[in-house]
Amino acid sequence: MENLTAEMRAGVLVEALPYLQEYYGKIVVVKYGGNAMIHEELQQAVIRDIVLLNLVGIKVVLVHGGGPEIAELLNKIGKESKFVKGLRYTDEETMDVVQMVLCGKVNKNLVTLLKNAGGKGVGLSGMDGGLFEAVRLTDEDGTEYGMVGDVVKVNPQIVLDVLEKGYIPVISSIAAGIDCNKNYNVNADTAAEKIAIALKAKKLILLTDVCGLMRDPADETSLIPQVKVSEAPALKRAGIIKGGMIPKVECCVEAVRQGVERANIQDGRVPHSILIELLTDKGVGTMFS
């Protein structure tokens, strides 16, 4: 940015104007995790993006995971991380760790980072105000995930109240169980999808560790910039949507089908990728519409 002339800086703002007008007063849900969360420089870029959007009148809701931090604490207490079909197997001891890390350390650190960048964050969990109601996740084939929840209802009023006051909600992906008196670990992508639908968000952004959906995962030039939700089943049958990309794509497809205008899978390792996607002609990642 230091090399930009005053005219170039003005040009950047002019290019952003129609997008600022389009998103003004609208809700954007950002799921945040992975490398973008644990590398300080990327973390600062994400936080500044969110604060800037908030200051220009775009209502940002930040939903976060915390896999690396959970794994670190489990390792300290000598407990091995176990995954089933890409989801963390969560026994009761692991659930205690997940709740401590997500609702405590990670959530409050993000609120502090927002404050330090000039923003106003409010930390929430899925239990606050009955935001997320869940039952134990079960598969038809009988796969066991432990205390992993399937969100069956979202009560978004507490988030709307926080947004109305000009604050940035920071939501950890824990849900209250309605089938038992326990809390559940919820996949953060799924939590972001559910809250985006309930809030009638204009945009859902899933930050991840790849540039988006690619025809060849080893070749970033094979990025598919746009996918219509009707095209997703064929891409899955062709083996283009596979592995860890399957649940992310399913979240985006379901969000769009349920009324979210657009959903994005994009690279959280790219500094300011949120601003590039929302406020420039170029965009970034794969957009589902």
Automatic annotation (TrEMBL):
Q: Which GO terms describe its cellular component?
A: cytoplasm
Q: Where are the transmembrane segments?
A: none
Q: Which GO terms describe its molecular function?
A: acetylglutamate kinase activity; ATP binding
Sequence similarity: Belongs to the acetylglutamate kinase family. ArgB subfamily.
Per UniProt, which keywords does this protein have? Amino-acid biosynthesis, Arginine biosynthesis, ATP-binding, Cytoplasm, Kinase, Nucleotide-binding, Transferase
Database matches in CDD domains: AAK_NAGK-C
Localization, UniProt: Cytoplasm
Reaction catalysed by this enzyme: N-acetyl-L-glutamate + ATP = N-acetyl-L-glutamyl 5-phosphate + ADP
> What PANTHER family does the record tag this protein with?
N-ACETYLGLUTAMATE SYNTHASE, N-ACETYLGLUTAMATE SYNTHASE, MITOCHONDRIAL
Q: Which GO terms describe its biological process?
A: L-arginine biosynthetic process via ornithine
Function per UniProt: Catalyzes the ATP-dependent phosphorylation of N-acetyl-L-glutamate.
All copies of the Aspartate/glutamate/uridylate kinase domain together span: 26-263
Q: In which pathway does it act?
A: Amino-acid biosynthesis; L-arginine biosynthesis; N(2)-acetyl-L-ornithine from L-glutamate: step 2/4
Q: What is this protein called?
A: Acetylglutamate kinase
Q: Give the matching InterPro entries.
A: AceGlu_kinase-like_sf, AcgluKinase_fam, ArgB, Asp/Glu/Uridylate_kinase, Glu/AcGlu_kinase, NAGK-C
Question: Site annotation (Transition state stabilizer): which residues?
Answer: 31, 248
**Gene name of the record:** argB
Q: One Pfam family of this protein, by short name?
A: AA_kinase
The EC number(s) attached to this protein equal 2.7.2.8
Report whether Cytoplasm shows up as a keyword of the record.
yes
**What positions does the entry give for substrate binding?**
66-67, 88, 185
